[in-house]
Amino acid sequence: MAAPVIFQLCVASAFNGLAKQEKLYAHWMAKAAWRGTRIILRQVSPEANGIFDLIIALYRSCKGDWEQLAATANVSPEELQQFLDYAALFLSNIGNYFGSGDQKFVPEISKEALTRLASGHHRAKKLLDHVLEDMYQQPPLSLGPHGPLTQTSYYLGDDCLDSPEEISSIATLMENLSTHPENTRLQRYQTAGVDCYDILQASVDESTVVLNSTSIPSLDNKQLRLVRGDHKDELEQICKCLRRASKYTSNPAQQQVLQQTMDSFLLGDLELYREAQMIWVTDKAPPVETVLGFVETYRDPLGVRAEFEGIVGVPEPSETELLEKLASVAEAFVYKLPWVTGGITSIEKGPFEKNIFDPPGFSSVQSLAYCSSNIFPGINLPNYNDIRQEIGYKNILFSNRMLAERIRTRGLHLVAEQEQEKYQNNRFHSYYIWVVLHEILGHGTGKFLAEVSEDNYNFDPVNPPLNPLTGLSVDCWYRAGQTWTGVFGDLATTVDECRAELVGAYLFDERDILALFGYTENSVVKPEDCNFVRLQRLCIHADVLCSVIYNMYLQLGVDGIRGLANYDPITKKWGQAHSRAHYTIFRHLLRDSDGLYTVQCEPHANRLTVEVDRGNILRKGKPSLGRMLLMLHIYRCTADVSKCREFYEDLSQVSEEALRWRNVVLYHKEPPLAFCHANTFLFHDHVELREYESTAKGLIQSWADRELL
């Protein structure tokens, strides 16, 4: 396990600009967010809550004086640092599996030294006895369906996923009962020889309801129950914090969102949560932005059950102004997408795009609290596509998280030596714009063809639209009650991220977009090759790509190869939706862009270089991205999961050559990032912010100060 690089997520500049009431609201919302920690730990692994308790117990046993604890326990400074590094990495990932990649990591400190470290404190020793073997045990190597090498806490019982037919039937039953899967887990067991499934639903209220499953043949001899009360204690604590926060809301919309969210947590009813999300979308540019609930489905092997997440962010006015300006003109760029048929003066955009593009909220915030296994640079929510399509969505960029990208080389060793300085100087600029376009136009575009309710369609089913991939009428769509995640299952998140990345990359060279971010012919960051030249192969005058565009296409290659680090050749599984997406895009470009990319690999020297034919990026690269984007978009809009699976799984196959690339990537792998958040403290009616040093000790102290029960 490599020692992490600790990055402090500074928030003081934004937080100190809040009014008193806004600080109080942020304080209680942050408390609510962090109270979801144990839910996430429980969702990660059986031992994760125990390891968390062990780390905090050791901190409290020495009151943060780790050197004294180590000296008393006869543990060397090197061994102590190994434990502190593990603890920081565990806390930052909220579990003993990487939030990005889902691989398990184990301590470098030996079992014997860790046992000595805990020996002087009764509670710590008792906790260590319970988790020691599981901390170090490998396999499991990663998260995934129960097996010899993988484990999951979303499906309890080693045989829970053994029958895909039964799992599919349970999903159908839940759909018929309007029971959404995001806040559930599934448990399988036997009682008196009867095969039983319990759908565990997150709620404060506890109850058990036997479900009538006789209408589904494959479940006829099974007992199914809906068991409410999963994560009861944590949700109860969260609701207490939300009630305190509700005294300090800035507007009626926030009050409604909190009430509906609390009601959802109390009852387990996700329809109430969906209603809260519909209101949340309309609350644009609040002084404190929040996200709370069962949000992302990345870690569920079936792609439908969601990890808990709690976020509190404080907007930055100047950055937000730029993003809102982009949002206000974003519709003009929707017309540039390959499935849009109308011109920019037309209202009609065709059957696969919404005719009305309501500018979404787009804010840049500093995160005060980001309680999640993976801290993303940006998000687009809600994750309910019908709400996105009919009501709208929000985009949030985390500026203090984005800053961490400036300190990272991110695959610099994959770039030719003569290009490295230029690539590194421009990488962050390209990355920033890519993330912005990914969120606002990647996740924010598209129209699902759907039977909205029985015999009520959002298109004409008698004369269905033509499929641009086949030239024939579409022959599939979403049936009443079906959702994107429900239909596409394990493919949903990675295909969604892949499509969003493609949209960002496809639109990246649009001059009006680049101008919004200050990149023009006269831009100060423009190197000597950003002038107008004649592209001889095209025999026409064209704009030469400036470095930021060239970097974008080079980054597609670099990130595609880097993504292999999150592929497990033993289980043949991808551990991260974005990594699989990046690799799949690059595989498509290698096949489809007529030699635009070359990869030079010297395995014995651990050298690998990806190169782009600079003069042909627009002629070969952009059309290739457009072809892949159109295919994924149409599959997604028409619920054509079979063709999508055939296309996507073929592209994401990892060949022997790619495995050699992977070895080089792992040889040069960067140390992981661990993020250190601030805390707020209430003194009478005054809120104070405390930030921590960017060290493993500081990160551990920040978690101890949260005083999670």
From TrEMBL:
Keyword Zinc appears in the UniProt entry: yes
Question: Which compartment or compartments is the protein found in?
Answer: Cytoplasm
Per the UniProt record, which EC number(s) apply here? 3.4.14.4
Which reaction(s) does its UniProt entry say it catalyses? Release of an N-terminal dipeptide from a peptide comprising four or more residues, with broad specificity. Also acts on dipeptidyl 2-naphthylamides
Cofactor(s) in the UniProt record: Zn(2+)
Q: What general EC class does the enzyme of this chain belong to?
A: hydrolase
Q: How is the cofactor bound?
A: Binds 1 zinc ion per subunit.
Keywords in alphabetical order? Aminopeptidase, Cytoplasm, Hydrolase, Metal-binding, Metalloprotease, Protease, Zinc
Claim: Hydrolase is one of the keywords in the record: yes
- Its family? Belongs to the peptidase M49 family.
**What name is this protein filed under?**
Dipeptidyl peptidase 3
What lineage is on file? Eukaryota, Fungi, Dikarya, Ascomycota, Pezizomycotina
